[in-house]
Amino acid sequence: MALLEALLGKASELGFKAGVIEARVVFERGLARLKEREEYRWVTPFVSGSLEQRCRPLSLYPGARTVIALAYPWYFPDPAPWKPGQGIIAMSARGEDYHRVLRRRLEPLVSWLREQGARLVVTQVDNGPLLEREAAFWAGLGYYGYNCSLIVPGWGSWVALGLIVTDLEIEPTPYQEERRCKECGQCFAACPSGALIGPYILNPSRCLSYLTQKRGFLPREVRSLLGARLYGCDTCQEVCPENEGLSREQAQLAKPFPFPDLVNVLQLDNHSFKEQFGATALAWRGKGVLKRNALIALGNSGYATEEAIKIMEQFLSSPSAILRAHAAWALGQLKVPHSHLALEMALQKEQDPMVRQELEKALFSY
């Protein structure tokens, strides 16, 4: 008990809420969900490890005795209202990359565990196979919302999660069975793409957060659903009553980039992309995905400046077929008269069948 209390106190000093489970546990609930997703072909490419590895800590670390689950508040209030012509970046990608922040903050805790005699100390911050939400749930840190987010009392679902696996034996913290989602259904009703298909059931391949990160062509039927989203989607969390009333004291006060100018995004080169976004969690997807999303957002805006239209027309001759196709779609949505000629000229030169199809549909929309 003394070691557990010392651990929880040390974690709290570093800004974390912590809980402990035995490493021999099996995440039966998580395993059932993963099998369901495999059965329905809902698996996304962003996960690693087999089902066994993701749900059974000992399958990865045979000498482990304890898994420490940690939650860290990740809430950035909007510094100013969103304006047309701007993109929207989800909370998880605002401020410095949460992977870096949590790993840096975990270092003193790792050192402390080694001082207590630990030989095995492995950290994971959304970059390993183990199901972090499941570990946090069973460690009593929070409970699942209807939208599949983990709700941490006092912090809501605006949290970043991490794990430490160690061979140090620490008494488990109790699972809080009485804590439950209110099941008001607001997240279910608000989900733009219908990714929430039932209580605590998410089809991740339909989730707009995933789609904004997915490379390649986005289906036409989901482009209009993205609105001004540049990276990620927070809709189901924004409407959750558990996320109301969070104060600045509970917020990260780093400088976020919640609403970048879409025209500026289209003009990013490698240097300016790294300068503006290199330290954030969205950098890993690269500027190509961000530019594709910016074109979609401008197409959804219903209005674009003369400068924006000119730059979008330039993308009709981009070396990237993906960007050419989405530029054609966006211009077809806006239906600016003088873009008709640009689309016709692009169609005359275009060889890629998918881009030609987008150009033809854009012209037909006039």
From TrEMBL:
PROSITE patterns with a match to the protein in the record: 4FE4S_FER_1, 4FE4S_FER_2
All copies of the 4Fe-4S ferredoxin-type domain together span: 172-200
Q: Does the keyword Transcription regulation apply?
A: no
Q: Which UniProt keywords apply?
A: 4Fe-4S, Cytoplasm, Iron, Iron-sulfur, Metal-binding, Oxidoreductase, Queuosine biosynthesis, tRNA processing
Entry's Gene Ontology molecular function annotations: 4 iron, 4 sulfur cluster binding; epoxyqueuosine reductase activity; metal ion binding
Coiled-coil region(s): none
User: Tell me, which GO biological process terms does this entry list?
Assistant: tRNA queuosine(34) biosynthetic process
Q: Which PANTHER family match?
A: EPOXYQUEUOSINE REDUCTASE (PTHR30002)
Protein name per UniProt: Epoxyqueuosine reductase
- Give the species this sequence originates from: Thermanaeromonas toyohensis ToBE
